Amino acid sequence: MTAIATLGSHCSLQVLKGAKDEGLKTILVCEKKREKLYKRFPFIDELIIVDSFKEVLDQKCQSILEKNNAVLIPHGTLIAQLSSEEIESIKTPVFGNKWILRWESDRNMKEKLMREANLPMPKAVTKPKDIEKLVIVKRQGAAGGKGYFMAANEEDYNTKRNQLISDGIISKDETLYIQEYAAGVLAYLQFFYSPLKEELEFFGVDQRHESDIEGLGRIPADQQLKTNKIPSFNVIGNSPLVLRESLLNEVYTMGENFVNAAKRVVSPGMNGPFCIEGVYDENAKFTSFEFSARIVAGSNIYMDGSPYYSLLFNETMSMGKRIAREVKTATETNQLDKITT
Ligand code: AMP
Question: What angle do CA 242, 247, 248 make, to 5 degrees?
Answer without folding.
Answer: 75
